[in-house]
Amino acid sequence: MTSEGKILAIGHAETPESIYGNPQLFPSMLPWLFPYGLRGIGQTEHKYKLSSMMHKRHLLMYYDKRFQKDPHFLLIAFNHEQMKESTTAGYLTAERKSFHDITDRLMNVNLEVLSDLTKRMTEGERIKPETEEEKLCFKLINDLDHINGHVPGSITQKKYMRNEIWSLISYFGAPSWFITFSPADSIQSVCILQTLRKHLVQN
Question: How far apart, in whole angstroms, are the C-alpha atoms of residue 104 and residue 194?
Answer without folding.
Answer: 76
